[in-house]
Amino acid sequence: MQNLEKPLPIRPYLTVYRSIFSIDYPRNSSGDLQAIIHPQLQSQDYLALRSGDPMFLTFTGDSILYRGEETVCPILINEAAYLEKGIAMTFTKKTVDLGNCMIIPDSSQPFYSLNV
User: Fold this and answer.
1) Per-residue pLDDT tens over the stretch 59-80
2) Which residues does residue 73 pair with via DSSP β-bridges, in sequence order?
């Protein structure tokens, strides 16, 4: 189905996140997992993670807390495809909210341009 060069309907704003870095699950010296994603963080992609918030739950029941100096927004939390790559989640930083945006299809490019 083609959109016939018409703008795509989207929300009147766009939020942009910048990737900072990815972190692995806690592991022992043999590389075995020592914790899982904390239940309070599971399925909370793009929501703020502040210092003191729980990130992991060890197999002995202890919480491992986020101790970063700045608030981050984790994404790809507990994605199965990233386990073998050593990624439990990726930290991002919300960088900008753009208002009154419209995505314009560009048939000469394999992506859309953004008019703000």
Assistant:
1) 999 999 999 999 999 999 999 9
2) 92
CB 34 within 8 A of CB 25: yes
Write phi, then psi, for 97 (nearest 5 degrees): -115, 120
C-alpha span between 18 and 95 (Å, rounded): 6
Entry pTM? 0.73
Token pair for 85: 């790559």
Q: What one-character-per-residue DSSP string does 1-54 give?
A: ---TTPPBP--SEEEEEEEEEEEPPPB-TT--B-EEE-TTTTT-TTS-B-TT-E
Q: State how far the Cα of 38 lies from the Cα of 115, in Å rounded to an integer.
A: 39
Nearest to 82 by CA among 40, 27, 25, 30: 25
pLDDT given for residue 80 in this prediction: 93
